[in-house]
Specification:
Blueprint lengths: L8 H5 L11 H9 L1 H9 L8 H16 L9 H18 L14 H17 L12 E9 L5 E11 L5 E7 L9 H19 L5 E6 L4 E5 L3 H24 L57
Parallel strand pairs: 3-4
Antiparallel strand pairs: 1-2, 2-3, 4-5
Amino acid sequence: MSTSEQEPAAAAAAEEPRAPMSLSPSRASDFMQCPLLYRFRVIDRLPQKPSAAATRGTLVHAVLERLFDDEATERTAPRAKAMVPGQWERLLESKPELGELFSEDPDGERLAGWLGEAERLVERWFTLEDPTRLEPAERELFVETELDSGLRLRGVIDRIDVTPSGDVRIVDYKTGKAPRPEYREGALFQMTFYALVVWRLKRVLPRRLQLVYLGSGDVLTYDPVEADLLRVERKLLALWDAIRLATETGDWRPRPTKLCGWCDHQEVCPEFGGTPPVYPLKIVSARPPESGESGQGRMDLAPPAP
């Protein structure tokens, strides 16, 4: 998944704190990992330092998205590799704070190595898929739907393919390595989340979910059935109940794991001797979404023209 669903830190920090209004795969994963991390990101809106790995993922996603602007015969590995520096410049223009990643790199060696890694990831994609035979129905598509319970689900899907017969495939690019078999259920959570949104929006059950791991050169696929999506819907409803309870009570407990070492918020985390900011919300029930707030996401699932 790309980072395009994340708001720039500066814009987010300027907003008034408010109760959570919707759920995305990233934020759902945050809460399952650590409720206090969810609070820091969603309610306190604490800034996060730019990450070289995450930014490289954003860069690779941008290249793979824009490559499909070209005619099929022009979608070659050399062409994609040559797009990397230009897309990095575009990314810097939209998010100048990313320049901090290489502020202590006077000779440009670290930046050159980092761009080279992005180029290698892009080139590896061509060993996994053939873009000359693909005509995506959607790329970097924002989707949003509201369940009967009032829970609003939203996110950004990297790519949607639709066959001439109408079968839908949801594709997500990952710049890391494929997980071991015992961790694949967690990896598929994001994809079944998106499948649920598509199903609720269009009453179309996606035929295939596909994770493309550029870091290891693996492709993980899963063909969901209706029971899978109903199961993830129940899980999300239970998760949302827990989030609403924490919002009402202000009780956001940390959940220490080995991932804590990579957290940006150690200074304000009790597990590291810190003190969280004063809880910015009144201890009241999270209000339900209002009918006037952002509506359903655009989604055109018609098969591409022959």
